[in-house]
Every structure is written in structure tokens, then in C-alpha cells.
């Protein structure tokens, strides 16, 4: 993601740095991103019990996804610019500490207002941490290991998206939703401790300005295509996926099986990530098209098929394969689109991604409360099938 301290590719490397300490730092940052993104998306699998406990509707409960998404979208560039002269270790540890505390506050909250305040703080941390962490590998490991270390850091985003939420849902089903939030809070504090212990000081080396953002969007057609397809796919996905629990319940799936089905979705997502990692080196555009097809097909199938646990599992596996391929594919598209302005382009991507999460949850909440629960599937599918013509329009 965007970073205010990414040195030029040919910048001299610190030959005195410890490879072992560098990799431990990379793993600590990865754990931080995993806890951040799991925190942002955890309510997806727990909407029903949270709404029941706090006496709010499913659509209102979805604000737990909308609020941090909106805040993270704004925080991604703003935190990067505002903290441009502060030691990166200090900024990252502060942000991850806020996440740990906010999740623990959610676990003990007795009103929805307190929960939304905690979700606001999580949004600030998600946007700021994610925007800074993407380029951190350049400062932590020797040059020859940078690509691998960066992939590990981004793996925290992907793993949280496809495994963190299902695991949190399973914990919530077994021990209650408050336990799930407390567990993620403790995970964030563990990451904080690890970063304090193993990360070296990381003084800022370069400051991104807000003026870089419109410039890279205006001058690179492929960036415009990437941001637009991110908007369509992520908005469509979260319009539907935010309400996957009530959708499955309406189809007669028992509560105890929903966490298991979401774990199947997560495992499929990890597979989709690795498959995409192989395909995108030579077939990037085709991989994007394949993602759109898989997501649209899965949503349509869930909308029209009367099914039990087995058929729901098959559909969620297809859905998981498609969505699991999104982060690595779209991030690669953005980096390829603006090779001389990767910081600004990546910051735009982080903002678009999180804004789309918020918009999807909001749009889905409105559709559930005013139309029907199944309408979110049709809305998400339509947005997904718009991706190929959009790409041809902005990046022929």
C-alpha cells in the first residue's frame, strides 16, 4: 500500500540490518494487518447476534462495517501525510494499539453508540496502518528479499478477508460475539507487543503529498480502470456478503453450520489467492474477468437455488475462489498501472477498497430493510458483471 517512506528502488540498503530481526518485524506487521482487517470485517459473520443483543435491525447493525470503511478510506492518505515526519514504528504501534483497545471496548459495550465509536477508531487505524505497511519491507529486509516480504505483508490482508472473518464467526457461534471481538482485540495487542520488541526505528525518508493523488488518477488510464473495477467488485461483494448470515438462515441453514460454511469460503479464498498468484504474471486482465464471472455466478446461484448445507457450501466455495483472488490481482494491477508513482496509486487503491466496503454494507443494509434480503445478491452480481466493459472503456 502507499507509504510515506518508500525509498527509491535503487536506494542504498543498510547492510548492517539483521535479516532475522527484519523478518520477525515483517511477521509482526503481517499479524497487525491480519488483526486490523479481521476487525474491520468481523461484524459480517455476526450481524444477527449483535443486532439481537443491542436491539437494532440488521440494516442498522451493518453500520459496523460502513463506518470503519468510510473512515479508513479518508484515513489512508490523511494519516500518511499527517505522520510524514514521525518514526514509522511509533505510528504503526500506536495505530495497532488503538485497534486492540477498540475491539475490547466493543466486547464490553452495552450500547450501539459505544460500538460505533469503537468502529470509528478502528477505521482510522485500518486506513493509516494499511497505507504505511505496504512499503515497510523495503526498510526491514535485504533487497533480494523485498518482494517476498511484501507478499507476506499483503498476505495478512488476504488471510483476514478469507479466514479471519470465518474464524471469528465460529468463535462467536461457540462462545458469543463479545468473545470474538475480545479475541481480535487481544490479537491486536499481541501484534503491538511484537512490533515494540522486534521492529527497529524507521525514520521517514519521503513524504507523499495530497496533490499526488489526483495527479496519478488523471494521468494514468490503467489506474482509473483499476480504481473503478475495485469500486465495482468490492461494493458488489460486500453488498451481498455482509448479509450472508441472514441469507443462509432464510434458506434454512442452522446457525451452528454458518461458521463452518464461512470457513469453507475462507479455505477456497486461500486457494483462489494462490491460483491468481500464478495466473496474473501473464494473464492479469483475464484473471480480473474470471473474478467477475465467479462472483456474479455465485451470487446468482445463491439467489435462485433452493438449497441446504451441501449446495450452499458449493456456492460459497465458488464465491470464495473468486473473492480470494481479488487482493493480489487488484494490487498487482494498480502497481503495474503506475510504476513511477506506486505510492500515490496504492493510496488511492486503499481508499477505494475501504470506501467500497462501506458503500457495499450501506447499500446492502438499505436493500435488506426496504426491498428484501435476496435483493443484495442481485445487486452485487450486476456490479460484478460491469467489470469487463469498464476495463475496456478506461484501459483499452
TrEMBL record:
Membrane protein topology class: Multi-pass membrane protein
The organism's place on the tree of life at top rank: Bacteria
Main location: membrane
Membrane-spanning intervals of the chain: 23-42, 62-83, 90-114, 120-138, 150-171, 177-200, 221-244, 256-280, 287-306, 312-335, 347-368, 374-391
GO CC annotations, alphabetized: plasma membrane
UniProt KW keywords: Cell membrane, Membrane, Transmembrane, Transmembrane helix
Domain Major facilitator superfamily (MFS) profile: 25-396
Localisation: Cell membrane
Any one GO molecular function term: transmembrane transporter activity
Secretion signal span: none
Alphabetical list of Gene3D superfamilies matching this protein: MFS general substrate transporter like domains
Protein name, entry field: MFS transporter
Organism: Planobispora rosea
Organism lineage string: Bacteria, Bacillati, Actinomycetota, Actinomycetes, Streptosporangiales
Amino acid at each position: 500500500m502507499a507509504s510515506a517512506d518508500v525509498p527509491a528502488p535503487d536506494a542504498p540498503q543498510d547492510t548492517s540490518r539483521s535479516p532475522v530481526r527484519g523478518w520477525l518485524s515483517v511477521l509482526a506487521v503481517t499479524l497487525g494487518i491480519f488483526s486490523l482487517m479481521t476487525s474491520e470485517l468481523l461484524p459480517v459473520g455476526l450481524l444477527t447476534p449483535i443486532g439481537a443483543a443491542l436491539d437494532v435491525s440488521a440494516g442498522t447493525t451493518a453500520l459496523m462495517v460502513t463506518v470503519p470503511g468510510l473512515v479508513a478510506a479518508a484515513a489512508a492518505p490523511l494519516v500518511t501525510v499527517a505522520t510524514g515526519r514521525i518514526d514509522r514504528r511509533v505510528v504503526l504501534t500506536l495505530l495497532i494499539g488503538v485497534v486492540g483497545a477498540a475491539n475490547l471496548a466493543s466486547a464490553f459495550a452495552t450500547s450501539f453508540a459505544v460500538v460505533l465509536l469503537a468502529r470509528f477508531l478502528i477505521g482510522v487505524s485500518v486506513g493509516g496502518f494499511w497505507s504505511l505497511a505496504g512499503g515497510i519491507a523495503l526498510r526491514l529486509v535485504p533487497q533480494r528479499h523485498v518482494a517476498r516480504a511484501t507478499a507476506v505483508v499483503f498476505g495478512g490482508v488476504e488471510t483476514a478477508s478469507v479466514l479471519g472473518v470465518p474464524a471469528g464467526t465460529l468463535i462467536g457461534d461457540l462462545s458469543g460475539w463479545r468473545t470474538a471481538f475480545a479475541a481480535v482485540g487481544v490479537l491486536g495487542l499481541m501484534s503491538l507487543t511484537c512490533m515494540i520488541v522486534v521492529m527497529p526505528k524507521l525514520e521517514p525518508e519521503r513524504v507523499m503529498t495530497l496533490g499526488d493523488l489526483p495527479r496519478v488518477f488523471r494521468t494514468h488510464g490503467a489506474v482509473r480502470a483499476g480504481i473503478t473495477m475495485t469500486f465495482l467488485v468490492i461494493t458488489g461483494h460486500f453488498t451481498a456478503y455482509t448479509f450472508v448470515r441472514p441469507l443462509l438462515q432464510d434458506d434454512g441453514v442452522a446457525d451452528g453450520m454458518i461458521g463452518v460454511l464461512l470457513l469453507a469460503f475462507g479455505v477456497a479464498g486461500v486457494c483462489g489467492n494462490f491460483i491468481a498468484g500464478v495466473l496474473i504474471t501473464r494473464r492479469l486482465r483475464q484473471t480480473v474477468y474470471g473474478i467477475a464471472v465467479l462472483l456474479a455466478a455465485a451470487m446468482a446461484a445463491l439467489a435462485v437455488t433452493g438449497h441446504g448445507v451441501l449446495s450452499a457450501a458449493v456456492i460459497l466455495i465458488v464465491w470464495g475462489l473468486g473473492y480470494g483472488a481479488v487482493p493480489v490481482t487488484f494490487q498487482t494491477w494498480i502497481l503495474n498501472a503506475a510504476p513511477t508513482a506506486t505510492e500515490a496509486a496504492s493510496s488511492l487503491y486503499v481508499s477505494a477498497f475501504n470506501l467500497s466496503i462501506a458503500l457495499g454494507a450501506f447499500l446492502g443494509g438499505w436493500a435488506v430493510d426496504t426491498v428484501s434480503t435476496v435483493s443484495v445478491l442481485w445487486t452485487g452480481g450486476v456490479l460484478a458483471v460491469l467489470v469487463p466493459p469498464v476495463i475496456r472503456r478506461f484501459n483499452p
